[in-house]
Recover the amino acids of this structure.
């Protein structure tokens, strides 16, 4: 997808790309080596592309999805012989804030990051190295699409994901 949109963004000298990755990209869990490696590769790709595209005013960031209330947990709760609420309570114990994230919270952050002018967020990292903070919550896909639709004032705050060119705002491509 990035290969399709980056040339037009570079030509326009403006663009926002948000890669949705799992929190395992930075905090792998035990027994998750194959997926943790691919998630870390997604993070490395995002960082490399951010350096390549920044001179063209194209910003690329990664949002790391943590534990979000979503339909996928209904099936997982059934497999564990639990109610969905019991399932959430069991997993929320592992989350520092003590609760699952909501899809709208994740999507609002994605929309915020895709608006113009760029909204800088506090940067942290090792001495001399800038690194975006990790804002985690677990699970998301249609999440961004739902919340971006709540904010119609921003033509660029629309997910590209499954959308077709016909459904994008005019002049987007």
């Amino acid at each position: 997808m990035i290969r399709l949109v980056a040339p037009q963004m570079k030509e326009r000298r403006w663009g926002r790309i948000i890669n949705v990755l799992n929190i395992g990209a930075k905090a792998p869990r035990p027994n998750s080596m194959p997926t943790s490696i691919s998630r870390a590769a997604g993070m490395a790709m995002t960082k490399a592309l951010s350096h390549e595209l920044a001179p063209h005013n194209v910003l690329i960031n990664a949002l790391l999805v943590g534990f979000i209330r979503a339909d996928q947990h209904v099936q997982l709760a059934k497999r564990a012989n639990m109610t969905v609420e019991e399932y959430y309570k069991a997993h929320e114990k592992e989350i520092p804030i003590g609760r699952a994230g909501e899809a709208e919270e994740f999507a609002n952050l994605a929309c915020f990051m895709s608006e113009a002018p760029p909204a800088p967020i506090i940067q942290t990292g090792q001495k001399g190295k800038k690194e975006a903070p990790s804002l985690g919550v677990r699970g998301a896909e249609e999440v961004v699409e739902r919340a971006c639709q709540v904010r119609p004032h921003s033509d660029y705050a629309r997910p590209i994901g499954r959308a077709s060119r016909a459904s994008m705002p005019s002049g987007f491509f």
